[in-house]
Amino acid sequence: MTTDFTSTSHTAFSHPGHPPATTTEHRGIRYLHLGTKWVQGAMCLDKPDAIELEYVQMMMMWMLFKTQPKRIVQLGLGSAALTKFSYRRFPDATVTAIELNPNVIAICGAQFALPPNDAHLDVREMNALDFVLDPANHGTVDALQVDLYDEDARGPVLDTPEFYQACFDCLTDDGIMCTNVFGDFPNYDKNLQAMELVFDAVVWVPEMEDENIVVLAFKKSPSLDFSDLYERAATIKKQFNLPAKNWVNGLKQWMQDQQ
């Protein structure tokens, strides 16, 4: 989540009371920052609807288990990579993104190719905690993606058992939460333990190129048939050009490590 390039503030994305949304560019990749060195998202200028960062691609791991979601929700807009991908590739689903910082929403619309809201897309400026606590959202979400970090990226800004319970409540009976855990080392155990208190099953993929751990939390424990998962991964690679075989390898390694 870091880069060595110097971010440049844009006055149009510096609404007071929130961290400014800034960008850098390098070799055809535009990076999003919140006024610091930490990378909050990225976009390939030649492929604006593709998911550029590996850990963000891994946030789509729920696709191994759900093929026809009706409602997909992102908590934390980032550079809108997950939102755009879900909106373009799941046209029968409604896609909701919750973002507290108006600067992030503005810069995503202006510089990260986020389309305007319509009947299938709803980007809301609001606190993610308020969204998951709202009874109107309970039992409505098939895939919930959580990537909530402030400008310092020391750890998720919402990480209590109460928050994860509210996320659980938002899921349909077989819904899945996929979340990114990054930051100071104690955050890993804290978040995993909080999720395990709430969800029926919690699995995660070991680190790859960076320190992000992507966690799948299931409202109802699935059966992990790896032959079926590899078959599904091949379909995902063919249809969506995502490295889903790596995800299955990671889940398999996780299971071996737990034994």
Q: Could you walk me through the main structural features you see in this protein, from its secondary elements to its overall organization?
A:
With 259 residues, the protein is an alpha/beta fold. Helix content is 32%, strand content 23%. It has helices at residues 54-58, 81-89, 102-111, 128-133, 161-170, 186-198, 226-240, 244-258, and strands at residues 8-9, 22-26, 29-33, 41-44, 71-75, 94-99, 121-125, 141-146, 171-181, 201-205, 213-218. The chain has a seven-stranded mixed beta sheet. A four-stranded antiparallel beta sheet has the order 1-2-3-4, with no helix packed on it. Strand 8, helix 5 (161-170) and strand 9 (171-181) form a beta-alpha-beta unit. Helix 5 (161-170) crosses helix 6 (186-198). The two termini are 31 Å apart.
Short description:
The chain is α/β, with parallel strands linked by helices and 259 residues long. The protein contains eight helices and eleven strands.
For the structure shown, list the relevant keywords.
single chain, 259 residues, alpha/beta, seven-stranded mixed sheet, four-stranded antiparallel sheet, 23% strand, globular, Spermidine synthase, SAM-dependent_MTases_sf, polyamine biosynthesis
